Amino acid sequence: MELRKINLKDAKEQWEYTTALPEDENGLTNPHHGVSFEEYREIVLPQLMSYEHPVDMPEWFVPETYYYLWDGDKLVGEFRIRHYLTETLGNGAGHIGYSVKKDFRGKGYGTAGLKLTVEKAKAIVSENEVYLRVNKDNIASQKVMINNGAYKVGEDEGHYFMRIPIMRKGNNFSL
Ligand SMILES: CC(C)(COP(=O)(O)OP(=O)(O)OC[C@H]1O[C@@H](n2cnc3c(N)ncnc32)[C@H](O)[C@@H]1OP(=O)(O)O)[C@@H](O)C(=O)NCCC(=O)NCCS
Fold this sequence. Notes:
Helices cover 30% and strands 28% of the residues. It is of the alpha+beta class. It has one domain (2-127): 3-Layer(aba) Sandwich (Aminopeptidase), CATH 3.40.630.30. The strands form 3 sheets. Strands 1-4-5-6 form a 4-stranded antiparallel β-sheet, sandwiched between helices. The protein has a 3-stranded antiparallel β-sheet with strand order 7-9-8, covered by helices on one side. Strands 2-3 form a two-stranded antiparallel sheet. Coenzyme A binds next to strand 6, helix 4 and helix 5.
């Protein structure tokens, strides 16, 4: 299993994933649901790739890197890392968003993908913890987080706020 950064070569599989992903599922939003392959290749893909090093984006936009989880030749999930927290992200969606293809759910891909994503995040995010938010009724995603060492730091009406400590050499705290 591997996490591969969004790229031009995998355009077809990435498009199949993106166009099929619902517009909003458990708070994970996808404005590109139903996009045609041509529009994906010409407009959406370059835009998503540019989010890692944004150009001409509003002040509030935080760089975001998209990864896809591959099992052999099958793309099974999408994992996105926002590089740092603003006040809005810190009190909201946090660093990482993810989803797994419907027909591959319940097979451990969510758990394995988040593990690999937290590894990537070590080199990307500046904070010592990965911040996550999950809907209270999204048991599967809560399990994915807990399986990766997440603990609850708070809640609002509809969500739990969770964090995963990032273990880097030199971190002066332990679990
Ligand atoms: C959340 C999501 C990524 C989980 O992916 P997944 O590949 O099914 O996750 P896993 O197979 O690693 O399952 C994790 C745990 O959830 C459990 N689970 C899976 N689907 C479940 C369901 N529908 N209801 C309850 N538990 C479920 C699994 O049995 C497993 O339990 P375990 O840790 O006790 O073994 C996937 O359901 C998804 O893409 N959902 C839509 C988008 C979304 O909610 N994203 C997260 C936003 S915070």
